Structures are given as C-alpha cells and as structure tokens.
Predict the 3D structure of the following.
Amino acid sequence: MDLGDRRRVADLPGDLVKAALARMHATIEEGVDRMKTDAREEPLVAVGGGCFLVPERLPGVSDVVHVRHQAVANAVGAAIAQVSGEVDQIFQNLSREEAIATARRLAERRAVEAGADAAGLQVVDVEDLPLAYLPGNSLRVRVRVVGEIAERGVV
C-alpha cells in the first residue's frame, strides 16, 4: 500500500511491523465476531479511514469487499444498519415468562423510539438470571431486539 512518507518508517524493524499488523487484524476479527448475531460466515464491507488495514481474508468472514472510495464510505454502514432496543433490568414478584415478556415490550418500545419499524422487530438476545440474594423472587432479565429503520415521510 502506498500511504504516507515511507522514509519516516523505514527504520522500523520488520518484526515490529508484522506484530503490529497481526494485532490490528486480530482486533478487526474480534470486532467482526462481536457484531455478528450468529456464527455463520458473513460478508464484510470494509469502509472508513482505517479500511486499508482489513486483510483480504478473515476467519468468520465469507468475503471481504473493498469498495471504491472506501475511505469516505462510512455512511454505508449508517444507511443499512438496524436499530436496536435493549433492556437490562431486575424484576420482582413476576414469573420468568412475565418478566421476559415485560422486558421484551420495553426493549421493543426503546427500539421504536430509536427509529425502528415496529412491524419487523426481532429478538436477538434473551438472558435471565435468578437473584437469590434479593427478596421477592428477583430475576435479572436482559433482552435485545433489532429492526429495520422505519420509513418516514419525506419532508
């Protein structure tokens, strides 16, 4: 890659450069894994100022796509992103099913308030944990839902 003034980094040891690139690639791989909703391989569109650091192959990625003008294409992600709503709350004196249903309704409301289309919301994560150290049949519930951006009237 032709980037910057090569003379400024000519004295860096090759092993240091290789180690730094390996760390950058590991960070990218970890970030991609954290963003995916399941373990399937998915394509990755590399955009933004650091997109030149994304290698052509990454574990867990079916295809790495480097688009033209990728350094200034950050808006692609914003344009295709889903909107989410999340609740992480302790419920008392409710059955497990009631607590999860209540948390789901709250998460759905938050997603819609953030701009999601209510008709297409999907639950992507549910976690519940009984809290024996608290009174009243306490249960910590975390629910995350996602949905497409709602179509709004054009002004």
About this structure: Residues 82-147 form one domain. The chain has a mean pLDDT of 87.
